[in-house]
Design brief:
With about 170 residues, the protein is mainly β. It has one domain. The protein is about 10% helix and about 50% strand. The protein contains one helix and eleven strands; from the N terminus they run H-E-E-E-E-E-E-E-E-E-E-E. Strands 1, 2, 3, 4, 5, 6, 7, 8, 9, 10 and 11 form an eleven-stranded antiparallel β-sheet that branches. The longest helix has 19 residues. It is globular and about 40 Å long. It starts with a helix and ends with a strand.
């Protein structure tokens, strides 16, 4: 009987040891399932006042009825503080395929920054023929713009070397 109890205890210990080292179960081994929080792959990046902005989540929407293309990227705080993020949204009304859209009414860019207190600061693009959104097809392009704080026009942010490519 002692031998049986020792053998049972050893079997339980080995069983627990093997299951603790086992990989997580995957119902689709070898098949990469997209992250439901970020179903778009690709990139959305720019220099934001000289600091790298790399979106962790991306959005893309084209409305065929109004011919409006809206793209965006959101970067969350490095320390993962809840509610703290930066967001850039590009809007092109009357989208007409791959070409250069000036920030003179043909396109607009909005930059939103939210701090730890939950306070939002919204910046919108300044109309200037030197600022633009360039698209190559629907899913790829570049942008450069200066945006101004909607509450204080003297507070400005430069978004340069902007690139997006959605897949």
């Amino acid at each position: 009987m002692k031998y049986f109890i020792k053998l049972t205890a050893l079997a339980v210990a080995l069983g627990l040891g093997f299951t603790a080292c086992q990989k997580d179960y995957s119902p689709t081994p070898g098949i990469e399932v997209p992250d439901p929080q970020n179903p778009l792959s690709g990139s959305f990046t720019c220099m934001l006042d000289g600091q790298q902005f790399t979106a962790q989540t991306k959005t893309f929407n084209y409305n065929g009825d109004t011919k409006t293309l809206v793209m965006g990227g959101t970067k969350y705080a490095d320390n993962k503080a809840p509610g703290v993020y930066q967001q850039i949204v590009i809007t092109i009304p009357n989208y007409d395929g791959g070409k250069r859209y000036g920030i003179t009414g043909a396109a607009s860019i909005t930059y939103i920054s939210t701090d730890v207190s939950g306070s939002n600061t919204t910046y919108t693009s300044i109309n200037n023929e030197n600022y633009y959104v360039q698209t190559e097809g629907t899913y790829k392009g570049a942008f450069n713009v200066v945006v101004a704080n909607t509450a204080d026009n003297a507070d400005r942010v430069v978004l340069s070397q902007g690139k997006f490519e959605f897949k």
